[in-house]
Here is the input.
Amino acid sequence: MRLARRIGVAIAAIGGVYAILIGGFYWAMCQPPERFGAIMARVPMPAIMILPFRPLWNSARGGHLAVGDAAPDFTLPTADHSRTVTLSQEWRERPVVLVFGSYT
Here is the structure.
């Protein structure tokens, strides 16, 4: 009986630590991209492999747009950081195509 209790306590402790890690990971995913990148640079690869990265990412960054909705206005630096680009300004001057995805 003592052994079963110890095993139960150990499992509960591991589950609690896992839940805290998931909560911290979700919090990090809700941060701005620069801060999220700085946090992820310090996360060891085994942690990424054992935590449910994809469901957390889809929940934290999924957004609320549906197909056909207008894109929200945003401003970003160009790849060479020579200027910033604002969607609404570019759209007034020329057609704009937004492509979302990963090419890695």
User: Anything to note?
Assistant: The radius of gyration is 21 Å.
